[in-house]
Amino acid sequence: MQTGFGRTGTHYWGFETQGVIPDIVTMAKGIGNGCPLGAVVTTEKIARTLADRIHFNTFGGNPVVCTQGSAVLDVIERENMQANSLNLGNKILAGLNELKGKYKLIGDVRGKGLLLGVELVKDRQSKEPAREESAQVMEKCKEMGLLVGKGGLWGQTIRFSPPMCLKEHDADFLIDVLDCALETL
Q1: Is residue 3 part of a domain?
Q2: Full-prediction pTM beyond 0.85?
Q3: 129: helix, coil or strand?
Q4: Would residue 2 count as lying in a domain?
Q5: How many domains is the chain partitioned into structurally?
Q6: 26 forms bridges with which residues in the sheet?
């Protein structure tokens, strides 16, 4: 759901970065820009089997929301949001790697485009998850006006998936806030 519509910066769909062709692709969130819209794309063979079944959905076929989704796709294309995701994602990734050099708590920095993560560890050798520290960093970021997500099996990864319309000053703000939050530990 979160890897679609050019967010990775190099491909329109996240699965394309993995060199696979899936049988079914589900999409939502980004296509509606906050409106209740989702879609499923599949092979002709699989789609034929669905024609023989009864299926129901709450918002299916809503022409207003479908028009909104079409407009969202037009804006992504017209405003070069995929290129923006790549450029600002690379800027943020570079800033996160600088923070990795500054803070031993950062065990790994990874991501593509505007899907990024910072894994916090108690020790870089053992990679012991820094679960509590991650929660503290999230709270500090929130206090300073930056909402971040949490991931990883142990809640040790700070996740960033800012909107594709992100501006350069927003990317700078993200890095500055994370730096301040880490400094408080």
Answers
A1: no
A2: yes
A3: strand
A4: no
A5: 2
A6: 40
